[in-house]
Specification:
With 287 residues, this protein is α/β, with parallel strands linked by helices. It has one domain: 3-Layer(aba) Sandwich (Rossmann fold). The protein has 9 helices and 8 strands. It has an 8-stranded mixed β-sheet, with helices on both faces. Strand 5, helix 6 and strand 6 form a beta-alpha-beta unit. Helix 1 packs across helix 9 and helix 5 crosses helix 6.
Length: 287
């Protein structure tokens, strides 16, 4: 953990990534921006439909070509939902040796292309997306998480290794809820620019669920989210420490949304650093 970036937090959560290793990850990311920091293999993809307690979720599955069984990863998109850029990110991750399921979180309201095309500048369309997000209650996310992880586990392409889960923006909180929903299966959690959805005074706040999990964590926080609420990193660090869970809480020098290539605030250098760190967390945990 880069504790020089997290002043006055008191006890910081344990992490087994040393300063030297963390620096090496950053260097590797910087060197690999042009061609990808990790070697990529051939990937197969297909659109799938997963039956849930609340309907039929449309999603896309990526996995390495060949017969080897690999660890699974559940990928929660940001507020924009399942769209091409999330497919691209899922494909890249699969190329590193994972079976990746990227879901449409708004399936209760509409299919992925329709939901991703909603324009927040049009009041009626913004209201529809807002309503779709409101349907993602903690209970609904928990139900979905159990179904999606079970579905991944049943695939012939997945191994018996622990499952990873990662999410962006609202998907960060959903990833923590996933780890709490199936604690025996989730080995690692990556949250990117999760913002204030991760820590609140609400009794159902995701950070309070960490003690119910058995995962290693990466909480990558945007600098403007940290400015808006500097207590988030402290709340996450304290929750990790209390639970005795290994994790990294880091404020990145980029703004909310920096990990997503289509974003107006995309920061390639910091996005690659986040990707390299998550790749290391997965390599350590999904065994």
């Amino acid at each position: 953990m880069c504790d020089e970036k997290l002043p006055n937090l008191g006890h910081l959560p344990y992490t087994d990534i040393s300063r030297r290793k963390f620096a090496a990850l950053g260097a590797a990311a910087a060197a690999g921006i042009a061609g990808g920091a990790q070697a990529q293999g051939a990937v197969t993809s297909r659109d799938v439909t997963i039956r849930t307690a609340d309907g039929a979720c449309d999603a896309v599955l990526f996995h390495p070509t060949g017969g080897a069984r690999r660890p699974g990863v559940l990928f929660w998109p940001d507020a924009g939902g399942l769209r091409q850029v999330k497919r691209d990110m899922g494909r890249r991750l699969a190329g590193q040796g994972y079976v990746v399921l990227v879901v449409n979180p708004y399936y209760r309201t509409g299919k992925a292309p329709e939901m991703a095309a909603l324009d927040n500048q049009v009041p009626a369309q913004q209201a529809r997306r807002t309503a779709a997000r409101a349907a993602l209650t903690p209970e609904a996310v928990t139900r979905d998480a159990k179904t999606f992880v079970s579905w991944l586990d049943a695939l012939p392409q997945t191994s018996g290794a622990k499952v990873g889960v990662q999410g962006y923006c609202m998907g960060g909180a959903m990833s923590v809820r996933t780890a709490a929903a199936v604690p025996g299966r989730i080995g690692a959690v990556g949250s990117f620019h999760g913002g204030n959805g991760l820590v609140s005074a609400d009794a159902a706040s995701p950070h309070l669920l960490i003690e119910k999990t058995n995962a290693r964590y990466l909480f990558a926080t945007a600098r403007n989210d940290d400015v808006t609420d500097p207590t988030i990193k402290g709340g996450l660090s304290a929750a990790l420490y209390k639970a005795g869970r290994p994790g990294i809480v880091d404020v990145y020098q980029a703004n909310h949304g920096w990990c997503v290539p289509e974003s107006a605030v995309y920061n390639q250098g910091e996005a690659e650093r986040a990707w390299a760190t998550l790749s290391d967390v997965y390599a350590r945990s999904l065994v």
